[in-house]
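Hi team,

As requested, here is the filled-out complex form for the pyridoxal-5'-phosphate run. I kept the field names the same as last time so the parser does not choke. Let me know if anything looks off before we queue the next batch.

— J.
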Amino acid sequence: MNWNSQFATRTQYTKRSAVRELLKLTAQPDMISFAGGLPAPELFPVEKVKEAADLMLSEFGHQALQYSETEGIAPLRDWVAAQFNRVGQPFTIGRDNVLIVSGAQQGLDLIGRVLLNEGDKVIVENPTYLALLGAWRPLGVQFLGVPSDENGMVVDALEPLLQQGAKLIYSIPTFQNPQGTTLSLARRQQLTGLLRKYNVGLLEDNPYGELRYSGEALPHVFQLEAEADATGQLRSRVIYSGTFSKVLTPGLRIGWVLADEAVIDKLVMFKQGTDLHTSTLNQYITHALARDGVIDQQLPRLRAAYKQRRDVMLAALAQHFPAGVTWTRPDGGLFLMVTLPTHINAADVLQVAIQHKVAFVPGEDFHLNGGQNTFRLNFSNAQPERIEQGIAILGQVLRMAVA
Ligand SMILES: Cc1ncc(COP(=O)(O)O)c(C=O)c1O
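And here is what came back:
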């Protein structure tokens, strides 16, 4: 059979990226890779995970190895809800507002599938998270790009797009992927006002919010917008997506969605058809780690290490990159974005950089349009000396390209 004639129409909306093939080379051990979004593996709490697995298997072995509720195990959902209730707000988030998902990525996929019809208009920052575009393109939606600057999404540019009848906004307000930028408080408030004025929903994706190295913590857009109804139930135009991937380990694949019960109900139905439920054992392990304070122990270690790596990278960029090249200065997260003079194509630079054993991700795939002269650098995965070395090499490659 010729399978190529059998694929569903929606597969035509996905695009294969030549850069992806190139990036397979970055797995070579002598490569200095700023390409992936990988946390530092040497900081994973391996022993604590081992202890938690042992403890959970001893205490709850039979439940932990059994099928479980699609919504997620109750203690983990309660733990997530309690984190949000800690800040004091006019509503209480309950277990029924939380869905445990197999990584935040699954939540993003499910949210798109339950909310978006073919042809619906969806506003995203341009550039935005590559795998969100990958998940939602097959739905046949129309993406509208809103520009962003050093203070995140330019909210002034949002209103004309809302007037075109957009159904949903997707945003990463804090330490955005790929730019590393953060939406200012004033813009968060302005955005909240627009959500209310146009009665439009926002998906707030926040995998990096806990990884802040400088500046003041800001309220989630979710916190600014959410209200209680007459019965004290959560009512929010914001659906919040969170994950344990960056504060514990991505290998457990545990994330969550926080939303009105009506949204969670619908997501549960779709999740059932996708994977029945998220790994029961991994949920038990994650709950033990969260409950026993391992995230609280991890956060200062992660923040200290990543702050150092960010600072080393920023200093190396200033020292080695030629005039005419600019970059963002993130207060947290894992990434920054570099902009080259407009005539230089980052994918061409990557070809040369890989020969010199340094890799990054060209920015084009994060963009709805344009971005050929940009690239994303990850600073969490490589050791400081390798960051210094890699940026020096990249500086030489760029000097040749600029010349
Ligand atoms: C913006 C954004 N959202 C979601 C995810 C997915 O996270 P998870 O590992 O929880 O699936 C990532 C992962 O890199 C991300 O950068």
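Two things worth flagging: The domain at 46-292 is CATH 3.40.640.10 (Aspartate Aminotransferase; domain 2). The chain has a mean pLDDT of 95.

Thanks,
J.
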